[in-house]
Write a structure and sequence with these properties.
Rossmann fold; N-(1-d-carboxylethyl)-l-norvaline Dehydrogenase, domain 2; two-stranded parallel ribbon; elongated; 6PGD_dom2
Length: 263
């Protein structure tokens, strides 16, 4: 049995055509399915799925049920959710996603999981369908922390690439030549070259929303504050992405950060 619920009803239509049951509420989904996967916009939306009206906790019991949170969330939110789920007899796994829309379509995401090991094992067939690798990282919170660290590296790298391309343009250098040279250096990665091409071609169709990157940088800064770890580059990069959002590029691809760097 496959049941699903979406805040955007049209998103369910293709699944309904292949036999999925469309549920009205998150609680309805959990009652129909042995394992429920949740992937929404942000930590607040993730908590709403569990604690909100007709949310998961409205189910009389969660005995025999598994709940997998795939939203990018902070460690505190994950602990709140696991306490609620386990309190009703359910199993909980946080499964953070590394990858873009294209990787999701190709089934080549990376999944970072933490929490109930037996639930992680039970999810392997699903994880193999959507990812090229899944990692079990131990206790609740470890996956969200790992995801934050990776997003820091990714966000700072993209901001640096955008500034470098903007400087090259201002200096009268051919940006395509710059990317060709970059591709031959140890600094290169397929992701950076792909985003670099998008920047110089002004191609911002959304594969990874700029707003999602800014949200993840914000979560990383929260983790840094909690641990009293200085993150000056992350803080600056977050401001760059915030400014790009203010310029109207929140729903464009992360490559649109170049527009902010250029002017």
């Amino acid at each position: 049995m496959c049941a699903l619920c979406s805040l955007v009803h049209d998103a369910c239509k293709d699944f309904e055509k292949v036999g999925a049951t469309i549920a009205v509420t998150p609680c309805d989904v959990v009652e129909e399915a042995d394992i429920t996967f949740s992937c929404v916009a942000d930590p607040q939306a993730a908590k709403e799925m569990v604690f909100g009206n007709c949310g998961v906790l409205h189910c009389p019991t969660l005995e025999g049920k598994g709940y997998v949170e795939m939203t990018s969330i902070d460690s505190d939110t994950s602990h709140d959710i696991v306490e609620a789920i386990s309190g009703k007899g359910g199993r909980y796994l946080e499964a953070q996603i590394q990858g873009s829309k294209t990787q999701a379509e190709e089934g080549t995401l990376i999944i970072l999981a933490a929490g109930d090991r037996s639930l992680f094992d039970d999810c392997q067939s699903c994880f193999k369908a959507m990812s090229k690798n899944s990692f079990y990282l131990g206790d609740i919170g470890n996956a969200s922390k790992m995801n934050s660290v990776l997003q820091v590296v990714g966000g700072v790298s993209l901001a640096a690439l955008a500034e470098g391309l903007a400087l090259a343009d201002r200096a009268g250098l051919n940006q395509a030549d710059l990317l060709d040279v970059l591709a031959l250096t140890p600094l290169a990665s397929p992701h950076l070259i792909l985003k670099g091409r998008a920047m110089i071609e002004s191609s911002y169709s959304t594969h990874q929303p700029l707003s999602h990157m800014q949200k993840d940088l914000k979560l990383a800064l929260g983790l840094g504050d909690a641990l009293e770890q200085s993150l000056p580059l992350t803080a600056t990069t977050n401001e760059i992405f915030k400014h790009a959002k203010r310029l109207g590029y929140a729903n464009h691809d992360v490559a649109a950060v170049y527009i902010r760097a250029r002017f």
